[in-house]
Amino acid sequence: MSMKGKLGYSILAMSIGAVLASYSVAQMSTDKYSRPAMTAAKGAVLNDKGETSIPEGFRLWSFIGAPLTPNGLNDGAAGFPEFHHVYIQPEALQEYLETGVFPEGTTIVKELVLLQEGEYEDGSRDEPSGRGFFADRFAGIDMMVKDSEKFAETNGWGFYNFGHKEPPYATVASPAPADSCAGCHMANADFDMVFRRMYPILKEK
Amino acid sequence: MSMKGKLGYSILAMSIGAVLASYSVAQMSTDKYSRPAMTAAKGAVLNDKGETSIPEGFRLWSFIGAPLTPNGLNDGAAGFPEFHHVYIQPEALQEYLETGVFPEGTTIVKELVLLQEGEYEDGSRDEPSGRGFFADRFAGIDMMVKDSEKFAETNGWGFYNFGHKEPPYATVASPAPADSCAGCHMANADFDMVFRRMYPILKEK
Fold first, then answer.
1. In B, residues 59-78, which contact A (CB 8 Å cutoff)?
2. pLDDT band at residue B34 under the 50/70/90 scheme
3. B41-203 has which fold?
4. Which ipTM did the prediction report?
5. Does the predicted model carry a pTM greater than 0.80?
6. Contact residues for B4 (Cβ-Cβ < 8 A; gap 6+)
7. A98 in B contact zone (CB under 8 Å)
8. Chain B residues with CB inside 8 Å of A30's CB?
9. Which residue ranges make up each domain of chain A?
10. Is the pLDDT of residue A1 over 60?
């Protein structure tokens, strides 16, 4: 994260609320994605327009799974290259595991992660653990936020794209049009707009 | 987790310490892997023989990566089938990100996860997000614990195997022989016995 990126983020944070701004200042000296206050796993904060930012420290949240769509198996250009590291706030996951319901405000972040250079056409390589696929570097962020009132038209969830490229990511994003991310989830997801069938921990409920 | 498994775990817990036993009792009505008290991300607790159990609630810990070695690319029998979901206590990860050092007691859990049925020889299948590999079910636990004194002969880490099969997992494990897990990590890992090069979040430090 460049200083410019940090500065831009702080300015944005101040513009959407004093609470978030003070949190951002407290965190300015650290990487905002990786190092949250351990007690704060706050989901996304939306402004009146529905815009939001990537939540602080999501990489220390809980993890539900890492679907993999290698470029090498998708004509060199997967729709979501390549690992999809999917994170959720620990509190929201715990509530889901207890009740079977994602609480309002649940924020799920999907970070795209490119593979280490392949030794085979499919993008796989040999490592001591076997032939397979191994992560190299972060390369994009999508996010979904549950707000049944604000996003009633897309089954209660808003979708955001902060760029499918290496960091720095966009500092703010507007809700994606209903016919992009939400449309696919509405057509194909199997539980409350989430592809639960791909996440073993969610299937336990 | 069967009732028998829960009971076995509770008996074990009582045998290795009152603190852990009381914690286990408090958790008896919930799945011990998925639902910790959110304030307690305790690493492994070793007894005098170096034996230990799978820590409560590790699936809500932080996540560092999910290397994938499909059976379909490893003669039908990968050494570690297939996704390796790798978890670490949030506090240990945060300390690492601040200092570049894994603190004493750091516990890293690798849960093996079998893939959904493949539609191609390599084990991949088509989903709305593309052709790729998608998790289905948990199927094994390996764990490494940092204790520089107790495991001085294996570069400060002890290794444990709770079974490479679907749950219920073994309720207790002894440190693996030095020539098994530790030997490979000593020969091939690139940072303090960890394959840091495969985990983007660790490479940021």
1. 59-63, 65-70, 73-74, 78
2. low
3. Chalcone isomerase (3.50.70)
4. 0.83
5. yes
6. B168
7. yes
8. 98
9. 1-40, 41-203
10. no
